[in-house]
Design brief:
- The chain is α+β, with helices and mostly antiparallel strands and 246 residues long.
- It has one domain: Mago nashi protein, CATH 3.30.1560.
- 49% of the residues lie in helices and 20% in strands.
- It contains eight helices and seven strands, in the order ααβαβββααβαββαα.
- It has a seven-stranded antiparallel β-sheet with strand order 1-7-6-2-3-4-5, sandwiched between helices.
- α4 runs antiparallel to α5, α6 runs antiparallel to α7 and α7 runs antiparallel to α8.
- The longest helix is centred in the last third of the chain and has 36 residues.
- The protein is globular.
- The N terminus and C terminus are likely disordered.
């Protein structure tokens, strides 16, 4: 606790802001770590690994409801928004199958894992939409600034009823990542989630409605980018002032 408080003060960020405003660092399955096979790993493989260089990614995992992901990908000639949503929740059956094969020889378990992957894959509904580079650049700039500002909180933020969000954004040489749990209104984390939901709405809309949704998306992204940059500048300025005093 003391170390977290000290880190928040050193960054020039009020403790209340450090606790709730930004996304938190991502340390789990969706940050790229490997480990024992689980539903999360199957979900990651089925929903994310079609595209290795995903930008402005947000995976949502509600306690109750449909899992889903949205991200932007550069496929050469154009930028594409990908939205993928689980049509059903197969995790219960998958977990039971994996438990039953946990002590089986490797071949039987490999077969069970392949079937589990197919079950998750077949339950995902994918929608795509092209997006112009100017709009996408603003959205991606906002994602980058928010994820560069991730920080640990002083208190646990997870709960039993809500939505977990796992964000990611590819930049040259690395994959930025962050997470949040049902962020509060008015926080940068909440505005980031709202922008991503607007991105998903754009991807899943009828083509005739996309122009209107794109205007709303661009407005959210522009405001979020300005806020994230201003918050970072304020924090950096506070730290610089203290360094001058010492």
């Amino acid at each position: 606790m003391a170390a977290v408080c000290a880190a928040a003060m050193a960054a020039g960020v009020p403790l209340a802001q450090a606790e709730s405003n930004w996304l938190e660092p991502e340390e789990g399955t969706f940050a790229g770590y490997t480990g024992p096979w689980s539903y999360d790993l199957l979900l990651r493989a089925a929903m994310l690994e079609d595209d290795h260089y995903r930008e402005c990614q947000l995976l949502r995992l509600p306690t109750f409801g449909q899992d889903g992901v949205v991200y932007i990908v550069d496929r050469g000639a154009s930028l594409t928004v990908v939205s993928r949503t689980m049509k059903e929740e197969p995790w219960g059956q998958i977990q039971r199958d994996l438990v039953r094969t946990s002590n089986d020889p490797s071949r039987q378990r490999a077969i069970a894992l392949a079937r589990a992957f197919d079950a998750v894959r077949s339950a995902a509904d994918t929608k795509t939409a092209p997006i112009d580079r100017a709009t996408a650049n603003t959205v991606m700039d906002a994602c980058r600034e928010v994820l560069l500002g991730t920080r640990y909180t002083a208190e646990p933020t997870r709960g039993n009823d809500g939505v977990g969000y796992h964000a990611g954004h590819w930049i040259s040489g690395t994959f930025l990542a962050g997470q949040t749990w049902s962020p509060k209104p008015g926080t940068i984390a909440r505005e980031f989630v709202d922008m991503e939901e607007a991105l998903a709405a754009y991807a899943t809309a009828e083509p005739s409605k996309r122009d209107t949704l794109k205007v709303a998306l661009l407005k959210r992204a522009t405001l979020l980018l300005r806020r994230a940059q201003a918050s970072t500048a304020t924090a950096d300025g506070g730290a610089a002032s203290r360094d001058t005093l010492h």
